[in-house]
User: Fold these one by one.
Assistant:
Number 1:
Amino acid sequence: MIPKVPSYWLTNAHVPICSLAPNSFSSQTPEELCLVNIKIEQGTIGQILPNSVSLDDDIAINLQKSIVLPCFIDVHTHLDKGHIWQRSPNCDGTFATALATAIDDGQKYWQPEDLYPRMEFGLKCSYAHGTKAIRTHLDCFDRQADISLEVWQTLRSQWINKITLQAVSLVSLDYYQTDAGVALADKIADIGGILGGVAYMNPELDAQLDTVFKLATARNLELDFHADENGDPNSICLQKIAETAIRHQFTGKITCGHCCSLAVQSAEVVKQTIDLVRQAKIAIVSLPMCNLYLQDRQANTTPYWRGVTKVKELKQHNIPVAFASDNCRDPFYGFGDHDVLEVFTQAVRIAHLDTPYSNWINSVTQTPADLMGLSTAGRIAVGLPADLIIFKARYFSELLSRPQSDRLVLRGGKEIDTTLPDYSELDNLMIK
Ligand SMILES: [Zn+2]
C-alpha cells in the first residue's frame, strides 16, 4: 500500500489534534481528530497541511480518514521476566505468588542464553505492533545485575535503529544501603541507566529513600520507582517518595509506577499526596492490565476494584500520566503481547477515558516520550522521522473495538514487516 518512493503524501489522515504541534490545527470531530495531509520526504515528515489544500502532482495515498498515530512509547516493561508463563505459571494469581514464582524462575534459569531470546522476543512483538522506545526494569540483585544488564546492553546496540532501549535497576530499596547497592548505582551510571527499585512500607523507608536520592544525586541519575502496588489504604510510599524528593531538592526526573493504593485512600490523603507529587514534579505510570490482573485477587472471590490509580485526578492537577505494558506472560500478568494499543484500549475501558477522549492518547505517545527524554518521539510534526502507525479505523470507537492486527507501521516513511514472532521460538526454553 505504501509506495517505495522517497517522497509521497498521505492524504485524509485522521490525526488526534494533541499529536500535532500545539495550536497548529483545529479539531473537526467531537473526539478531537482532524483531517490532514502529511507529506513524507526522505523518511521524515516534510509538510502537514489541512486536507482542504490541493496538492502538487506527487504520489498521494488517500487514507480515507484512517487514524494515524505516532509510534508508541512503552515506558514501563519487564523484558527479563517476559514469556516464562509456560514453565512458571502463577497458580493462584496473587501478587505474593507472582513475586515468589518469578524469583524462583530467575534463580533457576536467568542466564544469557535464556534471557536474550526471551527479551528479544518481546522486542520483536513491540516493534511489529509499532513501538519505537521501551524502558525496561531489570531485576538487579547481586550477580543477576551483571548478567541481565549485559544482555540488555547487547540488545540495546543490536536494536538501536529500531527501538530506543532504557534500563532501570529493580531491587528493594534496602539493597541500596549495602555495598552491593552502591556498586549497582555505579554500574547504572556507567551504562547510562536509570536508578530504580520497589518501595515497601517499612520503618526504614525514609532512610532508604534518603540513600537512594543521595546515590542518584551524586551520579546525576534519574529515578523510577515501583510504589504502592497494592490495595492497602495505609500504603503511602508515593507520598514518602515525593516528600524525600522535595527535601533533597532533587532536580532529575522522577517516575513512579503503579500507585494503586492511592485509589483506595481517603479524599484527604489523596489531596495531600497529589499536592506533594505535583510539587516534587513526579510523573505517574499506570499499568492497567497488570493492575487489573493482580489487584483484588483472592481465592473463590469475585474482584470488584479495578486496580488502577487515580489517573484522572492526577492529570487534572497537571501531573504527567502515562500507561504502559508492565509484565507480559509471566507470573505477574499471564497475558499480553507488548501491544501498546491494547494497553491504551484497556486503559480507556478500565479508567473510563472515553468521556471525553480529550488528549488521553498522549499517555502512550508524547507523555512517555517526554518521560524518557525523547523530545522528537511520540508526536507528529514537520522535521521528525516519519514513524507512524496507520489503522483501518476512522474514529476512536472503531480503533478500540478491534485488535487492529492489520495496522501499517511506517518507520522512516517505509512500511515494515509486522509479522509477529512465532511462539515456537521459545519452545526450547520452556521445556525444563
Ligand atoms: Zn513493573
Number 2:
Amino acid sequence: MHLLRIGGIACYMWYRWEIKRALALLLAACLALCLLVATLRGCRLACQREKRQDDESLLVYLHAEGRVVSMAMDAYLYGVVGGEMPASFPLEALKAQAVAARTYTVRRMAALGGKPCGRGGADVCTDSACCQSYKSPEALAERWGSEAKRNADKLKEAVAATHGVIAIYEGEPIEALYHSTAGDRTEDAQNVFAAALPYLVGVESPGEQDAVHYTDEARLGRRAFVKAVNKKWPKAKLKESKLESQVKVLSRFESGQVETLRLGGAQTTGKELRKLLDLKSANFAFDFSAKEVVITTHGYGHGVGMSQYGARAMALEGEDYEAILKHYYTGIELAQMEELQ
Ligand SMILES: [Zn+2]
C-alpha cells in the first residue's frame, strides 16, 4: 500500500515535469518565431532603404492595403498630383502641385534628414488625413476613362518638367501645405496650426470663383445642431427656440475665417466648430430658418499655403509654376533636391 502510494506520487511528479517541459518548449518555439519574423521584417525594410538610396526612391505605406512599398520619387508624385489635383487644371498649376508635393515629401524622408510619417515604418502614407492623397496609375486611368492617355501624358510632363525641384526657405525645404480653395485669401499658419512659419502667411487668392466649393451650404435641423453643440460643449446649453440670440460670431481673421464664436454659454473657435460639423471651411456665416440652421461656407480646406484653385487661376492668367509657388509661399526660392544632400 505504502509502496503503491510512493509510485503514484512519482508518476504524478513525472507527469507534471513533462507538462512543464512541453510548455517551456512551446514558449521557446513562440519566441524563436517572433524573432524570425522581426528579423525578416527588419531585413526587408533595410533592403528597401538601401535600394531607395540608389534610385532616389522612398518608402510608402499603402493605407488601403496595409503594406509598405518602395517607389521612385517621380512615380509616387504622379499618383499624388493625380490624387490631389484635377488633371484638367492647366499644366503650370499641375507643375506647382508637383513641386509642393515633392517638397512636402522631402521633409518626411528619413534619408534626407526629414521626419517620417512613421506608419508601417515608411516615410509617407497614402492616407490623405495624415500625409498626401495618392492614386495608383490604374485607379487614375479608370477614373479618367476616355481622357486617360491625355491626362497621363500631362501629369507625367508636370512631374518630369520639375524633376528634383523643391521649394526652400533659408536653405531648408518648406512645410509645403496646400488646400483646395482659400475663399479669396489664404490663412496664416499660426491661426490654424500651433506654429507660425514666415512663408505660410495669408495672401490674396483671386480668381477662385469657379471652384466647386467656392461657397457651400451645410444644412442641419435645429434639433440636430443643438444636440451636437450641447454634447460637445455642455456649457453652451443651446435651445432650439433661441438660436438667433445664442449663436454669434465674435471675431474673424483677415482671411475671413472665424476666430471665435459664442454658442450660448460656451465660447469656441471657428476651427473647432468646423471640425465638429465637418464644414468645408472655417470661413462661415449662420442663417436660421424655422426648422434649420444654414451654415454658408466660403472656400474649402484649412486655407494655409497654396490654394489649388488659386494656382489654377494664376496659370490661366499666364503665370508659370515658379510665380505661383512664390505667390503662395512668401519669400521662398526653388532649388534642386540634390543640393540638400
Ligand atoms: Zn502619413
